[in-house]
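Before relying on records like the one below, remember that each one covers exactly one chain. Contacts with other chains, cofactors or solvent are not represented anywhere in the record.
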Amino acid sequence: MQLDRRSVILSAAGLLAAPLVRAQGTPPIRIGVLTDMSGVNRDPTGPGSVAGAQLAANEFMAANPGQVVDVVVGDHLNKPDNGVAIVSEWYDRGGVDAIADLGNSAVALACSTVSQQKDKVQLNSGAGTAELTGRMCSPNGIHWTFDSYGIANTMGTLLTQEGGKTWYFITPDYTAGKDVQEETSRMVAKAGGKVLGAALYPFPSTTEFSSYLLQAQASGADIVAFANGGDAMVNCVKQAREFGVKQRLAVLAANALSVAKAGLDTMQGVMMVETFYWDLNDRTRAFDKRIRPLLAPGYFPASLHAGAYAAVTHYLKAVRQMGVPEAKASGRKVVEAMKAMPTDDDCFGHGYIRVDGRCVHANYLFEAKRPEDSRGFDDVLKLVATTPANEAFRPLSESTCPLVRS
C-alpha cells in the first residue's frame, strides 16, 4: 500500500482510541514517526520515513508471529513546540514507546528532553545536528543516518584530496548554514586546502544569487560550495549554470531524491555526500525492492527513509532480546541494549553504536551523473570516494557528550 499524507496522519483522538493491548496477546510495541508531512522536508523525510518504519515493523511482525508493532505518525510542521506537544501526548496517553525520524534538528533537540524525562527511546534518523551526540546527547537517544560533522568531514576532506584545493562558500545567514560552512572549512584546511572567501546571503528573502555567484567566479576557487538546501540550493545550481560558472559545484545539504527531482540537466557534475544510496550494492538494492511498493509513484528511497528503517529495525532487535514488558518499562535500558549489539541491515551494512549514541557507518562522496549516463529517473549518482566508518564521524576524543566522560 502506498503511503500518502491522508493515509498516515493520525489525530490524537484516533491514536488514543486504539486499544493498547490486543486480546489474548502481548502488549503492542508502539512507534511514533514524527516527521514533516506537509513542508519543505516532506520528500526527504515524510511519507518515505513512515514507509521505512512500517517496513521494519512488518518484517519484525512476520518474524515474530503474535507480536504487534503499531506505527503512528505526527506532523511537527518544522516547529519545535508542535513536536514537543505531539510526543508529550504520545508518551503520556498514546502508549508510544519510541519515536523516530524527527527530520528537523531544532525539533529533535526539543523532543530529546521530553524523551529523557519520560524514559522513552528517541531514534534520531532524520535530524542532522551533531549536537545530538555532542553536548546535547541523551542516554535515551540514538543518532542514525548522517550528521553535520560527517558531511563536512567527507566533503571537505575527500573533495580537497580529489583536487579541489581552493574553496568559496555561498551560505545562508542562519545558524545551520554558517555552522556547516565553518566545519567544512576546517576540514578543507586540515586536508591541505584553502578557503578563498565566502558570501553570506539573507535568508529566506534571497532568490537571486547572481552577485554571489559572480564573486565566487571571480575568486578563481576550484570549488564553489553551497551551504543551503531545498529550493535555495537548486536555484543556486541553476543560476550557476546560467551564469556559466565553470568551477566544480558542491552542495552540503542534498540527497539523491532532490537531485532526481531537480533533474540531471541541472545537477550533473554536482558533488554531494550521502550515507545511503539505493543502487550502492546488492544489499541496498534488496532493500529498495522491498520498500518501493510502500512509496508513492515517482519516488525512490532516500537516505533518511533508509535511516528510519535501519533505526527501527535495530530498536526492535533490542526489544526482542530484552522482552517486550522490560523494553516498555525503560527506554534507557533499550538504548543500552542497542549500544551493546552490533548493527547490521541492508541499508548501512555492518556497524555499531558508540557510547554517545552515534551509529557508526561509512559516508560516501557522490557525483551527480550526466543525463546520457543515466538509466532513468532514479539512476542519478556515481560513487567517487568513501570515508570508512571509523573515520566518518567526530572522534570520541573530541566529544563534548557527558556520556563519554561519565
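DSSP finds 17 helices and 15 strands in the chain.
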